[in-house]
Design goal:
Blueprint: H1 19-28, H2 35-113
InterPro entries: UPF0449
Coiled coil: 77-111
Pfam family, one: UPF0449
């Protein structure tokens, strides 16, 4: 019927090693640990770890303060906008009052000149 096509475009993944191959590789694997270097690096690595941790805590604290600062800025922007609207309203009311007084003065002057 239908033939199964071979996957020639993508090769099969490699076969994982069996237990015997792993054990054979373990025998050839050797790491030399110099205790003098380890003891010399230990205090430095602790200091590096503490330094990293303090820098991390400082970054977290800075981020929290930036978030708080951002919210404060937004609240100040809202207050400023409301004050701006309030001032514009007061200015419009004053302008209307001045215009009414001008109209009254013009009316009185026009009656007096007649």
């Amino acid at each position: 019927m239908l033939k199964k096509s071979k996957n020639s475009k993508y090769p099969l993944p490699p076969v994982p090693p069996n237990v015997e191959e792993i054990l054979k590789d373990i025998e050839t694997f050797h790491v030399e640990l110099n205790t003098e270097n380890l003891s010399r690096q230990s205090p430095g690595s602790d200091a590096q770890h503490l330094d990293w941790w303090t820098r991390f805590e400082q970054a977290v604290a800075d981020q929290k303060s930036l978030i708080m600062l951002s919210s404060e800025i937004k609240s100040y922007e809202l207050k400023l906008e409301s004050k701006k609207i309030e001032l514009e309203t007061e200015a419009q009311l004053l302008e209307n009052a001045v215009q009414e007084q001008r109209d009254q003065i013009d009316e009185v002057l026009s009656k007096a000149s007649n």
